[in-house]
Amino acid sequence: MREFLKTKGYKMTPQRELVFRSFFELGEHVSVDELFDRVRQIDKAVGYSTVWRNLKLICEVGLAREVNVGDGVTRYDRVTRKPHGHFYCVSCKSLLEFDLNEIAGRLAKVATAEKFETESFKVEIEGVCKSCRDKENRKTKRSLSESPGVSKAKLSKKR
Amino acid sequence: MREFLKTKGYKMTPQRELVFRSFFELGEHVSVDELFDRVRQIDKAVGYSTVWRNLKLICEVGLAREVNVGDGVTRYDRVTRKPHGHFYCVSCKSLLEFDLNEIAGRLAKVATAEKFETESFKVEIEGVCKSCRDKENRKTKRSLSESPGVSKAKLSKKR
DNA sequence: TGACTAAATGAAAATCAATTTCAATACCGA
DNA sequence: TCGGTATTGAAATTGATTTTCATTTAGTCA
Ligand SMILES: [Mn+2]
Ligand SMILES: [Mn+2]
Ligand SMILES: [Zn+2]
Ligand SMILES: [Zn+2]
After folding, report:
1. CB contact, 8 Å: B154 with chain A?
2. Which of A72, B88, B110, B141 has the most beta carbons within 10 angstroms of its beta carbon?
């Protein structure tokens, strides 16, 4: 790792090493805050900006990519895995991956047709995961006699 | 429109009408600021929050959807059109649409396979549009004698 | 036609993630 | 070891978004 970074013109530091290691330990879909927490468990002295900057660096050198599901928090995904899309459960906010091989092919075709030079795809399916749906069903069944109407949902809640 | 909103329990106001009308006039991929500017051209007294809230309302009642390409600005897209994906040019930040019919079918299949209840798809191709690529080529050709190396890119720039 | 009440408005403030600033510190090549 | 550059950490800033709150208004009903 040290060597890899050196070739790209970056120095190695204890903080950097810790951030990199923690990121790869955490695995999929890591947010800055999650990574920060993890790093802090090991070294209380590391600053938030250091974690942030090094996470950016991990992207910069091509080891991770940003994942933005539109819930206000950017997550970071290792690029080791082959191209994949994400199920995003709007209920529990979990991300589940699915393979993108055939679909990626079609998308590439669409892109060339439009003379668009593709850098990356982003495919997302928004909805409700099985576990959340089951939970919801059970709740509904339990309370079928109560509260007849649900009032207008308050506008937004994000972030 | 007035009637449509009434059935959903909302009142009509001059501001609301103006915001709605302006939104549909502007068409595709409208940001709050763009809409705000447009509205202000007609009525200087309308507040930003009013525009924002009504844009949210347009989504709430199902007439628009948020589009988040991860550049920090949320855009809003009418739902009149059939499902489509977006080319996002990272250079000029323009959005170009492409049809999603076949791909949507495949995605739906993937979703059912995973017992995931789909609410919507989000398909994006990031890259460089033809016009930007041409521009870039011309520039490169012109300056082939200059600056031999490009230094490390500054980390991030978004928003 | 009023009068009432919940909804809507506008200005300002609050949020909140993301990013930058800057002075102090630490790498690492010579 | 030394010196110049990169990195760090705390704090401040940014910029979009969202909320608050006092005031106004739309729509309802007598
Ligand atoms: Mn992933
Ligand atoms: Mn669109
Ligand atoms: Zn879920
Ligand atoms: Zn372009």
Report:
1. no
2. B88
Q: Beta partners for B87?
A: B96, B125
Among A13-17, A28-32, A123-127, B70-74, whose mean pLDDT is lowest? Answer: B70-74
Q: Which string of b and e fits A37-70 if b means at least 16 CB within 10 Å?
A: ebbbeeeeebeeebbbbbbbbbbbeebbeebbbb
Interatomic CA–C1' length for residue B53 and nucleotide D27, angstroms:
20
Which residue lies nearest D27, CA-to-C1' measured?
B11
Rounded-to-integer distance, Cα A93 and Cα B103, Å: 24
Q: Which of A79, A50, A103 is nearest to B122 (CA)?
A: A103
Interatomic CA–C1' length for residue A56 and nucleotide D1, angstroms:
34
- Over the stretch B62-119, which tens digit does the pLDDT of each residue have? 999 999 988 889 999 999 778 899 999 988 888 999 999 889 999 999 999 999 999 9
CATH 3.30.1490.190, domain B81-128, yes or no? yes
For strand D, list residues 21-80 of chain A whose Cβ lies within 7 Å of it. Answer: 45-50, 53-54, 72
Domain parsing of chain A, residue ranges: 1-79, 81-128, 130-159
Burial class (CB in 10 A: 0-12, 13-18, 19+), A156: exposed
Chain A neighbors of B96, CB-CB under 8 A: 114, 116
A127 touches chain B (CB under 8 A): yes
Q: Which CATH architecture does the domain made up of B1-79 adopt?
A: Orthogonal Bundle (1.10)
